[in-house]
Design goal:
Elements: H1 3-13, H2 19-39, H3 43-55, E1 61-62, E2 69-70, H4 72-85, E3 91-92, H5 108-122, H6 126-145, H7 150-153, H8 158-175, H9 179-192, H10 204-225, H11 240-245, E4 268-269, H12 280-292, E5 300-307, H13 323-326, H14 330-340, H15 350-354, H16 356-362, E6 365-369, H17 371-375, E7 383-389, E8 394-399, H18 412-423, H19 429-440, H20 448-452
Parallel strand pairs: 5-6
Antiparallel strand pairs: 1-2, 3-4, 5-7, 7-8
Helix pairs in contact: 1-9, 2-4, 2-6, 2-18, 3-4, 4-5, 4-10, 5-6, 5-8, 5-10, 6-8, 8-9, 8-10, 9-10, 12-14, 14-16, 18-19
């Protein structure tokens, strides 16, 4: 078998999923719904919904956080875009120590957005939806893990380009597609895959995740109607890996799918902050230092952040002017951490980025490549933070992982707090609590539309 057929057979044939995988996947399922609800409040969410109202069409699936329903593929696009709008969704790790941490995919949102729409359409159970998401995430992560690093380095956004394969795998499973249909769906999804990193810090970055969800779902819908496409699209000479990356490592796919599941090893990080994951270890250290030593902005002479050489290639906005740019700016994140001692949803807004106090403090932040950190490789985000105070004291800390990393996991209490912060942006707290209880018990849900009816909200 070729790699494409290997992946597709796994997606369709897998029936036995270990309980510990399902339990861990439920955390990511809850987190994915949370960030979709929160993202519905972003300006991009309002623009998406306005566009959907103009288009019209059959109201087939729920646009989370609002009262709007839309055609299946457009609901997937809307929910996928919302799920990535705050850059608050999970991030896969790499299996190879030479790979770069955080530069693979945000796997849950594209898969979940497509799967939710397909599950509503097929009247699937919650258990079937969860298993489809588990398989779809596994497919997306393994395909991304195998890609030649040139893919990301030269400008492709991996969530955009490879999230669609996971979305197609999940949708094909929920629709009961056969091998031939799903191979053709993969061929079509590959030709639709796109997304460029120059758009980081704009609405187009979350659009990537939404379009990946839509692409995967549309590819399955068309393949079921008989649409033709190449059936070896991943490994073919003129296929996805060759054209988009210059190659791949098949050994990271063959024999690896579900063995073990990516959720278990190397794992997928859940974000504690709504910003680029490469900044999170430094954010942890900075917040610990300012809280422990009661540091205020007037005391700070300068802040030095030591990183590896890949970080500046992703956190590209040294002087952001919008919240979207601030999500990819260590300078902003260090400054707001000192000013507010928090780095949550309410900190990542335009007003905070443009506040003169923030802008003045950003000028005191220096990001540099630390040779000791550089020598340790790139598979973990190791960061060193040093705060020099005006009285001569120096406060310093180091982290090789952030909260939410599989090696430093968020508890269910942490996840509940994040869910409530997100959900109460679009619904009262009692409704959010009820929805969360149902989400934790997703495997007991008889029909997914019973769940999605609880996830409507007041976003206009």
């Amino acid at each position: 078998m070729g790699v494409t057929e290997t992946v597709v057979r796994f997606a369709l044939a897998t029936r036995t999923i270990p309980d510990d995988v399902r339990m861990l996947a439920t955390n990511h399922f809850v987190d994915g719904i949370a960030v979709m609800l929160a993202g519905a409040t972003e300006q991009s969410g309002a623009l998406v919904r306005a566009h959907l109202r103009d288009i019209g069409g059959q109201p087939q699936a729920t646009v989370l956080g609002s009262k709007l329903r839309a055609p299946l593929q457009l609901a997937a696009w809307a929910n996928g875009t919302a799920g990535h709008a705050m850059d608050y969704d999970d991030t896969q790790l790499a299996t190879d120590p030479q790979s770069v941490y955080g530069l693979l995919t945000h796997p849950t949102v594209p898969v979940l957005a497509a799967a939710l729409a397909a599950a509503e359409r097929t009247h699937a159970t919650g258990s079937a939806l969860l298993d489809a998401c588990i398989v779809g995430v596994e497919v997306a992560c393994r395909i991304a893990d195998a890609v030649n690093p040139r893919h990301y380095r030269d400008g492709f956004h991996s969530t955009a380009t490879m999230g669609g394969f996971g979305a197609a795998a999940a949708a094909a499973r929920l629709y009961g597609c056969d091998l031939d249909q799903t191979l053709r769906a993969f061929g079509l999804a590959a030709s639709m895959s796109a997304g460029l990193r120059e758009n980081f810090g704009t609405m187009t970055k979350p659009f990537h995740a939404g379009r990946a969800a839509e692409n995967g779902l549309v590819a399955v819908q068309l393949a079921r109607r008989g649409w033709t496409a190449a059936k070896d699209i991943l490994e073919a000479k003129r296929g996805f890996y060759s054209a988009a990356a210059g190659g791949f490592d098949p050994s990271k796919i063959e024999g690896k799918l579900g063995n073990p599941y990516f959720y278990m090893t190397p794992g997928i990080s859940i974000k504690p902050y709504p910003s680029g994951s490469l900044s999170h270890p430094a954010q942890d250290v900075l917040l610990e230092l300012v809280r422990e030593h009661d540091v205020g902005p007037a005391q700070v002479e300068r802040i030095d952040v030591g990183v590896n050489s890949h970080v500046p290639n992703a956190l590209i906005h040294t002087r952001p002017t919008t919240a979207l740019e601030g999500k990819f700016s260590l300078q902003f994140q260090m400054a707001i951490g000192v000013l507010e001692r928090r780095a949550g949803i309410t900190q990542f807004v335009d007003e905070k980025v443009r506040d003169p106090r923030t802008r003045e403090l950003m000028e005191r932040v220096r990001v540099y490549v630390d040779p000791e950190i550089e020598a340790l490789g790139y598979n973990e985000m190791r960061m060193r933070v040093k705060i020099t105070l005006k009285d001569g004291r120096v406060l310093a800390g180091y982290a090789d992982k952030a909260k939410g990393h599989p090696g430093k996991p968020m508890s269910r209490t942490d996840l509940r707090e994040k869910f409530m912060d997100c959900a109460t942006l679009v619904m009262p707290s009692d409704r959010a609590e009820a929805a969360l209880a149902r989400l934790w018990a997703i495997r007991e849900v008889a029909r997914v539309d019973e769940l999605t009816s609880m996830l409507v909200g007041r976003a206009q």
